[in-house]
């Protein structure tokens, strides 16, 4: 593909998108989609940051249709409530961008449901959210789900450790972060396989931003951590968040984007550049591990994709 930029986004008029996360890449996604004519729902846990994000989108795209909805990906009850509200308000959804994340807290933390924080927020929260919104997506026009992964998913230590999935026995921040992002990539690929098999009509893709200038490191590892200081003083090594968002936006909007594909930057080992097809780590292609991860995720979250129906009046409540 040639060099691709936000001006190449086709009109998104008539499409509705949910984007998780109120800053960084998520904010850039929301601005670009709104500017292209989409109705954008920004989902995050902090009301003040949500209002600030909406104001920034409206400043960048004055005629945009954008709103904020409370969603805490570290809380299954919040995810269920978000899904219920959207299903009550609308009949369809065209785009879901599973973007929000936490990265490398120095000490092990857990979600409200007792999941390790990175796995619980980055992966299990988005797994549950996608299950909640599946009926709406199935009613959408050319519906797409884009789930954010990371170049950390290809780290040597990144694997799905079923023997210690929640890092209760050993917590290594980067290893656990890599596992969560590998799980996100495997979920995106497995969702496409299941959509094809069940006839859901959903295109599922994954994307990663390379190394981008966001607050993910300072907020996670801490501003005074080695990585936080690296982000502060070696800022020039990180591409702008708007550039890092391009692979996600390409996957979300381009007619050339295909389900079951992984997108990332095209230069310097996929750390920066324009959107291109990214290399999928061999571990992410193991369909047996992916199927097992899906089953485990349904059990942990209490969510099932099998109950989805294009007829919303017949959709049973999610468990």
UniProtKB/TrEMBL annotation:
PANTHER family for this protein: PHOSPHATIDYLINOSITOL-GLYCAN BIOSYNTHESIS CLASS F PROTEIN, PHOSPHATIDYLINOSITOL-GLYCAN BIOSYNTHESIS CLASS F PROTEIN-RELATED
Keyword Oxidoreductase recorded: yes
Coiled coil region boundaries: none
Protein name: SDR family oxidoreductase
Keyword set includes Oxidoreductase: yes
Record key words, sorted: Oxidoreductase
Recorded GO MF terms: oxidoreductase activity
């Amino acid at each position: 593909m040639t060099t691709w930029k936000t001006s190449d986004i086709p009109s998104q008029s008539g499409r509705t998108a949910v984007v998780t996360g109120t800053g960084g890449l998520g904010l850039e996604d929301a601005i670009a989609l709104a500017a292209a004519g989409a109705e954008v729902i920004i989902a995050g846990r902090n009301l003040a940051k949500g209002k600030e994000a909406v104001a920034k989108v409206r400043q960048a795209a004055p005629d945009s249709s954008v709103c904020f909805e409370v969603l805490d990906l570290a809380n299954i009850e919040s995810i269920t409530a978000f899904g219920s509200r959207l299903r009550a308000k609308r009949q369809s959804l065209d785009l879901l961008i599973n973007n929000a994340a936490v990265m490398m807290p120095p000490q092990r933390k857990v979600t409200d449901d007792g999941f390790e924080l990175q796995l619980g927020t980055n992966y299990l929260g988005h797994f549950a959210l996608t299950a909640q919104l599946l009926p709406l997506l199935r009613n959408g026009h050319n519906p797409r789900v884009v789930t954010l992964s990371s170049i950390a998913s290809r780290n040597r230590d990144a694997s799905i450790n079923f023997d210690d999935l929640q890092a209760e026995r050993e917590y290594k921040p980067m290893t656990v972060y890599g596992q969560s992002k590998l799980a996100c990539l495997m979920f995106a690929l497995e969702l496409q396989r299941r959509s094809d098999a069940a006839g859901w009509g959903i295109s599922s893709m994954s994307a990663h931003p390379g190394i981008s200038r966001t607050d993910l490191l300072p907020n996670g590892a801490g501003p005074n951590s080695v990585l936080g200081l690296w982000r502060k003083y070696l800022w020039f090594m990180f591409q702008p968040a708007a550039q890092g968002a391009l692979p996600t936006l390409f996957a979300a909007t381009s007619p050339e984007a295909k389900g079951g594909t992984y997108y990332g930057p095209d230069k310097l080992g996929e750390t920066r550049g324009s959107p291109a097809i990214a290399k999928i780590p061999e571990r992410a292609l193991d369909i047996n591990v992916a199927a097992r991860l899906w089953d485990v995720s349904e059990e942990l979250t209490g969510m099932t994709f099998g109950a989805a129906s294009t007829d919303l009046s017949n959709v049973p409540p999610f468990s």
